[in-house]
Specification:
Length: 482
């Protein structure tokens, strides 16, 4: 079987994986785990060990949605997720539903399945189970049949037969459909430590002890990046520390002046509070992966991977974000731009973890915008990403914070661009000077996403567009508005 690491020995008899699958309890006890690794992908386990073949592998990267299943929470939420990059150990204590779990007790199809069939929303059928599960999660959400919302709900599912029109029709029909509440997963109050392979601490103290004892273990949050080692590469890491059950890393606090988000908070949970504080993020976050990715993916993970083309670091740089890093030695804070030291190299010590990130809200007379340029609109990594926060007083730029991604080996604060803006009037000449500073500040690379020349030109043009956003807010300068 793909992803097999070898026999797993438990430190204590309570150490096992428990979850609910299609309303039935599953307990993978030590005897069973002698043949299954917690580093196995959920997709492989469903197909190879449970014979649930409706969940399929299309891309093994979380892009096509053929592997979509639904994560069910005790509070009634149902969220689509990618089974191909989720690791079995991550599912401990949760509840999962596959397409087979939609069938009624009397053997009849679920109303969502009937809606898909009645709309003639299948062609070759390979992708259909994934679409059905995304439609099921959408119906459960109570969202209205707004075309933009429907397309957002379907952004993570790919139909190679181009049969989207009837699929959208089926989604419109199931919007707001009454769906029975989910059966919650089991409560886990104990630490699950799969010896030498998969550690799942339930407290910060335990996490820091594990981090000190296993400095070479990979820190795993949502697995939307690291999960590719097990899915696409078929070389899962030998040792992992899973962060999703540590309270301090999954907390959100919105104070009067600062917003604090735990490093292991999934995007799906963080988005409402981010959008409330920074409305300009709406379009940007909608293009950050798909709903399946945002169900498990975390901001802390996006920071920790230190990719120069990660979507969130430029935004967090512009928002003057500070990171809280903790270890058994204590805690320290540093501005996010100081966290990135080089390509995929960070200031995180071998015994530290990112506990949280915090940023101030927008002050009066401040404006904030962000942009993402990519080869595809949806489900693509950025070629150039940029974010800008400016304080405007009497027609002048009193302060500016600008972050760029895709322009260097790390996400970078654009100090020369900021200097060209600060203290200057909101005028075309000011933003032309800022655009000119891009060439002095950045030396991007040529790659298949874009040439260095394209990146410099695009970044400069984004600053020119920023002028029109500020000077004439009603002017239709957004691509989506044209």
């Amino acid at each position: 079987m793909h992803g097999l690491i070898g026999p797993i020995i438990f430190a204590r008899m309570v150490d096992c994986i428990r979850f609910r699958l299609n309303d039935q309890p599953v307990e993978l006890a030590p005897l069973e785990l002698s043949g299954v690794s917690p580093m196995t992908t959920l997709l492989d386990w469903l197909r190879d060990h449970r014979g649930l073949k409706g969940t399929k592998e299309g891309c093994a990267e979380g892009d096509c949605g053929a592997c979509t299943v639904v994560l069910e929470s005790a509070d009634g939420r149902r969220e689509a997720m990618n089974a191909c990059i989720a690791l079995l150990g991550q599912i401990d204590g949760l509840a999962v539903r596959t397409v087979e779990g939609l069938r009624r007790a009397d053997g009849t199809p679920h109303p969502v399945q009937l809606a898909m069939a009645e709309a003639d929303a299948t062609q070759c059928g390979f992708c259909t189970p994934g679409f059905v599960m995304s439609a099921f999660a959408f119906a459960s959400s109570g969202e209205p049949p707004d075309p933009a919302i429907i397309h957002d709900a379907l952004a993570g599912n790919l139909c190679r037969c181009t049969g989207y029109r009837p699929i959208v029709a089926a989604m419109t029909k199931v919007a707001g459909m009454a769906i029975e509440p989910p059966t919650p997963g089991p409560t886990r109050d104990v630490s699950a430590t799969f010896q030498g392979v998969f550690h799942a601490p339930r407290s910060l103290d335990e996490l820091l002890a594990l981090r000190a004892a296993h400095p070479d273990a990979l820190l795993l949050a949502g697995a939307t990046d690291l999960g590719l080692l097990a899915s696409r590469s078929r070389h899962p890491p030998k040792s992992v520390i899973h962060l999703a059950h540590v309270p301090e890393l999954t907390a959100i606090a919105a104070g009067k002046e600062r917003l604090t988000i735990g490093a292991a908070v999934p995007y799906a949970r963080a988005m409402p509070i981010l959008l409330a504080s920074y409305p300009a993020l709406a379009t940007y976050l909608a293009r950050l992966g798909s709903r399946q990715i945002r169900t498990l993916g975390t901001i802390g993970g996006n920071i920790g991977t230190a990719s120069p083309i990660g979507d969130m670091p430029p935004v967090l740089i512009a928002l003057e974000t500070r990171l809280r890093l903790v270890s058994r030695r204590g805690a320290r804070e540093l501005p996010i731009e100081e966290f990135f030291l080089g390509y995929r190299k960070t200031a995180l010590a071998g015994d530290e973890v990112i506990e949280s990130l915090s940023m101030p809200g927008l002050w009066p007379r401040e404006v904030f915008f962000c942009d993402k340029l990519s080869k595809r609109r949806d489900q693509d990594i950025s070629t150039v990403a940029a974010a800008y926060r400016l304080r405007l007083v009497d027609g002048r730029i009193e302060d500016a914070r600008v972050g760029f991604g895709g322009m260097a080996a790390t996400p970078r604060r654009a100090l020369l661009v900021e200097a060209a803006l600060c203290g200057q009037p909101v005028a075309p000449a000011t933003f032309e000077a800022a655009a000119a500073a891009v060439a002095r500040e950045f030396e991007p690379i040529d790659d298949w996403r874009g040439s260095a020349s394209y990146r410099r030109t695009a970044a400069a043009n984004l600053l020119r567009r920023l002028y029109w956003r500020i000077a004439e807010p009603a002017r239709p300068v957004e691509v989506e508005a044209l």
